[in-house]
Amino acid sequence: MSKILVDTIDTRSGTSNITIGSSNASQITLKSGATLTNFPANTPAFHATMSASQTLSNNTFTKLQVNTEIYDTDDCYDNSSNYRFTPTTAGKYLVYGCSQTGGSNNVLQFSGTALYKNGSQQTEHFTDFRDTRGGSSNFTYTSIVMDMNGSSDYAELYGRMNVDSGNVNIQGGLNITYFGAYKIIGT
Fold first, then answer.
1. DSSP one-letter code for 11
2. How far, CA to CA in Å, does 72 sit from each of 45, 79, 153, 154, 180?
3. What CATH number is attached to the domain comprising 174?
């Protein structure tokens, strides 16, 4: 085996690609503990859950107070006041959210989860119980790819439900109601 000792590998004039290995190479091995830098990453990224139940007004979209960060790679998620994700790097982001309703039996007509960008609804997923009136608990999940400018664009999670009567809440707790996003690399 041969060894090449260098400080910098660069292209020669007139070329822009560096190829490491030949078409026969199937693996590049780095020493244990090596760090690769300047590679694309799926960051900024975050995932947060809602710690306590939140009561919503009937049949009204309400921003969900998803306040417990599981991770937040670049401190782009506000988990204490605005409950919004404002990434600092421009690009396409997969944004997702889930909410669970819970309350009195047979009062839920429909429940839904929506994602907003800059205050405007982008997507909604809902479950309709109006023909059966059988709903008292339901999960709804939605996701969308959003173009974010890396400075002022933000994403938020909203919930909505409609009830015949009684009290229905969006349920809190680990992985019951959650909100997250990550940058898509290669786009």
1. P
2. 6, 10, 17, 15, 9
3. 2.60.120.40
Q: What are phi and psi of 171, to 5 degrees?
A: -85, 140
Q: Does residue 75 lie within any of the structural domains?
A: yes
Is residue 12 a part of any domain in this protein?
A: no
Q: What is the pTM of this model?
A: 0.80
pLDDT tens digits, residue range 14-64?
777 777 766 666 677 777 887 777 777 889 999 999 999 998 888 889 999
pLDDT, mean over the chain: 85
Residue 122 lies in a domain: yes
- Average pLDDT estimate for 5-13: 77
Whether residue 57 lies inside any domain: the answer is yes
Distance of alpha carbon 92 from alpha carbon 117, whole angstroms: 13
Instruction: Please give the residue range of the domain that contains residue 112.
Output: 45-183
Give me the number of domains the chain comprises.
1
3-state secondary structure 83-130: CEECCCCCEEEEEEEEEEEEECCCCEEEEEEEEEECCEEEEEEEEECC
Contacts of 31 (CB under 8 A, 6+ apart): none
Query: Cα(171)–Cα(143) distance, rounded to whole angstroms?
Result: 19
